[in-house]
């Protein structure tokens, strides 16, 4: 069992225990903010289960039907998780408004307070572990799951703080108000997660920082080739895809050009892990010493023709 699957299972176990604790505390106290946190944790559990199956599926090797692998299972997982968060937030707001219109006293504040802060501590530890593995494995599914739990840390602390205020001030309307604030925070979390998970599904380019790394490695060898163009990038799961056209002097042998392509690919892959690179070779139809001497790619006829 790989590291991604192990931490995904850990998230499932921790969320299950916390949901039961919050539900018990919520029903004993009658606190809508604690119940809202239990609902939030239920969404976290569903997200953890989805993440578990998606990381297992995404690690399957490429096959005839999926020649680019199965990495986008993780992105689909992230989108589903974001939609689940939207649903949870909407439900919390609805229930909180009902509680504002028909206020009820909050009982056994101490139990709720203890459960909320214990929950925050557990989720803090698990989310740190998830983030660590997500960065190591470049996993959007685990990152989404970690984001769920990170949000749960803040919302649990918020609910716990609200219960403390209720105990001090005896103002029971603070309970649904805190729950609504929790829901607004969750909506913000869901929006950022949705954007992050959905973008690779429509083949958005890599980040500017990653593209800068790629171009820097290519430019290290500009004394040998004439020009490059049509640089394209995308990402599927943890795998990054790069393709470009590289223009060589027409008198250069295919072997020499191919060897340089191997060097460029290795240079990029040393810095950007899990990167697949495809380089299309083109011959310059003009005396390319002119391109190199002037350091001006616009002099290259191949480059002009492709623009």
Automatic annotation (TrEMBL):
Which residue intervals define the domain Cation efflux protein cytoplasmic in the entry? 206-284
Q: Which Gene Ontology terms describe the biological processes this protein takes part in?
A: intracellular zinc ion homeostasis
The entry assigns this protein to a family as follows:
Belongs to the cation diffusion facilitator (CDF) transporter (TC 2.A.4) family.
Q: Where exactly are the transmembrane stretches of this chain?
A: 12-32, 38-55, 76-94, 106-126, 147-168, 180-202
Q: What is this protein called?
A: Cation transporter
NCBIfam families given for it? CDF
The root-end lineage is: Bacteria, Bacillati, Bacillota, Clostridia, Eubacteriales
Its predominant location is: membrane
Keywords attached to this Swiss-Prot or TrEMBL record, sorted alphabetically, are:
Membrane, Transmembrane, Transmembrane helix, Transport
Give one GO term, molecular function aspect.
cadmium ion transmembrane transporter activity
What membrane topology does this protein have?
A: Multi-pass membrane protein
Query: Subcellular location, in the record's words?
Result: Membrane
Provide a GO CC annotation, any one. plasma membrane
Q: Which PANTHER family match?
A: MITOCHONDRIAL METAL TRANSPORTER 1-RELATED (PTHR43840)
Residue ranges annotated for the Cation efflux protein transmembrane domain, each copy included: 9-201
């Amino acid at each position: 069992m790989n590291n991604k699957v192990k931490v995904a299972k850990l998230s499932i176990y921790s969320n299950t225990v916390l949901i039961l604790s919050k539900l018990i505390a919520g029903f004993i106290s009658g606190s809508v903010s604690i119940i809202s946190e239990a609902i939030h944790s239920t969404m976290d559990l569903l997200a953890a289960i989805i993440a578990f199956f998606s990381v297992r599926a995404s690690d399957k090797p490429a096959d005839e039907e999926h020649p680019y692998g199965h990495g986008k299972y993780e992105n689909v997982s992230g989108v589903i998780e974001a939609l689940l968060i939207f649903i949870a937030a909407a439900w919390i707001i609805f229930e909180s408004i009902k509680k504002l219109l028909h206020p009820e006293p909050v009982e056994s504040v101490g139990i709720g307070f203890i459960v909320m802060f214990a929950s925050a501590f557990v989720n803090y530890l698990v989310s740190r572990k998830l983030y660590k593995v997500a960065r190591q494995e470049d996993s959007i599914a685990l990152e989404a799951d970690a984001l769920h739990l990170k949000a749960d840390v803040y919302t649990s602390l918020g609910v716990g703080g609200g219960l403390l205020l209720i105990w001090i001030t005896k103002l029971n309307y603070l309970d649904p108000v805190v729950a609504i604030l929790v829901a607004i925070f969750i909506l913000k979390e869901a929006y950022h997660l949705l954007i992050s998970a959905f973008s690779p599904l429509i083949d958005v380019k890599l980040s500017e920082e990653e593209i800068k790394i790629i171009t820097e490695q290519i430019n290290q060898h500009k004394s040998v080739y004439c020009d490059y163009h049509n640089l394209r990038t995308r990402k599927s799961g943890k795998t990054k895809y790069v393709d470009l056209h590289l223009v060589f002097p027409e008198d250069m042998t295919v072997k020499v050009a191919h060897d340089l392509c191997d060097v460029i690919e290795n240079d990029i892959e040393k810095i950007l892990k899990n990167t697949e690179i495809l380089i299309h070779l083109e011959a310059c139809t003009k005396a390319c010493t002119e391109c190199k001497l002037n350091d001006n790619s616009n002099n290259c006829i191949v480059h002009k023709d492709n623009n």
